[in-house]
């Protein structure tokens, strides 16, 4: 008994299948590339570089831009003509101003003082009196400034205290020190031409007589003065008033 055989296509239907062949080729290439990349990565990178270098394009840099043209200089304006000088002014002459003359004042001349009347020995410019003349110490008239009479007057330098002092705590009398009844005492000191005290007089006493007495005593011993001077600058004797304060 014969087996049935498969039908054989006729020869006229055998056409080349290019699409299937291309697909098989691509699959093989992909498999080969995967194996090469997996086992030899350096070979794959070198192949990629060689392919990219084959298609690399060298680009030249663009040329630099052309320089801008320089601006044209603007023409300067023509200078203007200067103005002409004016006509000279008139010459003036200074005027002399008249200065008013100051009025002349005529002062009346004073008549000289009349000489005093008296004997030949006592006649002089001043009237007769009981005091001493220029020293100014007396009741008559004179040129001194310390006299009590109505003299011709004068200018001088008064007496000035220059040293000496009285202390309440040290010089007050011990007997009445605790009472402290001595308040103020005023004295007049006769100062000579040498500046020393030659006399003392109590003008206003204090309630304590012992304090008054010790004031005069210590003033004569300790006080020194610059003597008074008359109008001519000569030292003269004079009276100096002092007010001593006790415990105040």
What report would you give on this structure?
- There is one protein chain.
- The chain has 4 helices and 7 strands; from the N terminus they run H-H-E-H-E-E-H-E-E-E-E.
- It has helices at residues 18-39, 41-54, 168-171, 209-222; strands at residues 160-163, 184-191, 197-204, 224-226, 228-229, 235-236, 238-245.
- The model is unreliable at 111-153 (pLDDT under 50).
- The longest helix is centred in the N-terminal third of the chain and has 22 residues, at 18-39.
- The chain has a domain at 160-245: TolA/TonB C-terminal domain (2-Layer Sandwich), CATH 3.30.2420.
- The protein has a 3-stranded antiparallel sheet with strand order 3-2-7, with helices on one face.
- By secondary structure, the protein is α+β, with helices and mostly antiparallel strands.
- The protein is elongated, with a radius of gyration of 73 Å.
Topology:
Layout: H1 18-39, H2 41-54, E1 160-163, H3 168-171, E2 184-191, E3 197-204, H4 209-222, E4 224-226, E5 228-229, E6 235-236, E7 238-245
Antiparallel strand pairs: 1-4, 2-3, 2-7, 5-6
Helix pairs in contact: 1-2
Largest sheet: 3 strands, antiparallel
In order across it, which strands form the biggest sheet?
A: 3-2-7
CATH topology of the domain at 160-245: TolA/TonB C-terminal domain
Number of helices: 4
User: In whole angstroms, how far apart are the ends?
Assistant: 182 Å
Low-pLDDT ranges? 111-153
- Count of DSSP strands: 7
Structural class: alpha+beta
Q: What is the name of the CATH superfamily of the domain at 160-245?
A: TonB
Assembly type of the shown chains? single chain
Query: Which architecture of the domain at 160-245 would the CATH scheme give at its second level?
Result: 2-Layer Sandwich
- The CATH C-level name of the domain at 160-245 is Alpha Beta
Mean pLDDT: 69
Order of helices and strands: HHEHEEHEEEE
Give the radius of gyration: 73 Å
Percentage of residues in helical conformation:
10-25%
Tell the overall outline: elongated
